[in-house]
């Protein structure tokens, strides 16, 4: 069977081709799936999509009309998919339930340490042979309070690293992680208290209706004046307009974002020549204490390899008529 894979990055392509070898043929496209590119899938029973695919009702209906019956998404999150319409159309939708949590947790700490120690500003200066230390003072992580919002697999890995730094750990989640609580000494508390007491806050919850804009104007107002906020989960967790207003007011010592709520159509593309019309993102990136990366926290050889292998396994399961924990539709 030939799989049409959308949104395949250059570094991802050889891994995908190797995983499919001897099992399926694969045709890789650089373009991302949306309503405009959906017709390219005509006569392909199985397609694979990336995290930024736009699988809304229009796109799904176009795919189904063209003969697509199975969509294998190469990511864990699925907030970009209209699952009800997919079920109505009789499509099979799968995702990757698990891949290396260390990739995202380590990158979240990379963001945190970079904004804390002003690494980007320092590197830019030294490239111009400016070796002054003015404005580069950071803070010890040891002895600070770290708030982990969401203590699943990735949140636990982030907390393990925080424990190694010698921090006090606060956690918030719908269910307590026994390892974080008993082995790392994490204290579970309300989100309001976590925001108020933490020097560093890192977000590791999925984007759901209840978590959309979890960090809104009131949540930002509860944070310490000199707190650091890190988001490597989903952009919609943070009200970006409220974040910009908070930074304009001179609050927050650092912000590290690997995701952005309006990233679709921006992230994974080169917009350097045409500019970006998103005024909120443009304003956000003018603040010197803000570091924005383009949804790359998962992008390690280990994690991407696991994602691709699971994706191809999901296609095998579809061909064999099997449902697994990765099957979103049919439920």
TrEMBL record:
Location of the D-isomer specific 2-hydroxyacid dehydrogenase NAD-binding domain: 110-297
Coiled-coil zones: none
Every D-isomer specific 2-hydroxyacid dehydrogenase catalytic domain range: 8-327
UniProt key word Calcium: no
Keyword Amino-acid biosynthesis: no
Listed Pfam families: 2-Hacid_dh, 2-Hacid_dh_C
Gene Ontology MF terms: D-lactate dehydrogenase (NAD+) activity; NAD binding
Family membership noted in the UniProt record: Belongs to the D-isomer specific 2-hydroxyacid dehydrogenase family.
The protein's name in its UniProt record: D-lactate dehydrogenase
Organism the protein comes from: Streptacidiphilus jiangxiensis
């Amino acid at each position: 069977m030939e799989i049409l894979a959308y949104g395949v990055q250059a570094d991802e392509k050889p891994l995908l081709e190797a995983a499919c070898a001897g099992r399926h043929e694969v045709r890789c496209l650089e373009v991302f799936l949306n309503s405009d590119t959906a017709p390219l899938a005509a006569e392909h029973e199985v397609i694979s999509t990336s995290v930024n695919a736009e699988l809304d009702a229009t796109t799904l209906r176009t795919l189904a009309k063209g003969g697509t019956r199975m969509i294998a998404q190469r990511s864990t999150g699925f907030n970009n998919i209209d699952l009800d319409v997919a079920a109505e159309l009789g499509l099979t939708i799968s995702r990757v339930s698990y891949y290396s949590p260390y990739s995202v947790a380590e990158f979240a700490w990379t963001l945190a340490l970079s904004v804390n120690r002003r690494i980007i500003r320092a590197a830019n200066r030294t490239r111009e042979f400016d070796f002054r230390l003015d404005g580069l003072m950071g803070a010890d992580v040891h002895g600070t309070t770290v708030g982990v919002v969401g203590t699943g697999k990735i949140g636990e890995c982030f907390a393990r690293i925080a424990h190694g730094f010698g921090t006090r750990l606060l956690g918030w989640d719908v269910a307590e992680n026994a390892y974080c609580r008993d082995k790392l000494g994490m204290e579970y508390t309300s989100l309001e208290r976590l925001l108020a007491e933490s020097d560093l806050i890192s977000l590791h919850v999925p984007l759901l209706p209840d978590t959309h804009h979890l960090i809104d104007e009131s949540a930002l107002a509860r944070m310490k004046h000199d707190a650091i906020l890190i988001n490597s989960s989903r952009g919609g967790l943070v009200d970006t307009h409220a974040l910009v207003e908070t930074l304009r007011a001179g609050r927050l010592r650092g912000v590290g974002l690997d995701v952005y709520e309006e990233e679709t159509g921006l992230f994974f593309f080169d917009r350097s020549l045409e500019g970006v019309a998103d005024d909120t993102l443009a304003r956000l990136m003018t603040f010197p204490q803000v570091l924005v990366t383009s949804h790359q926290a998962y992008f390690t050889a280990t994690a991407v390899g696991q994602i691709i292998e699971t994706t191809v396994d999901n296609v095998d399961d579809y061909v064999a008529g099997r449902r697994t924990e990765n099957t979103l539709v049919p439920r």
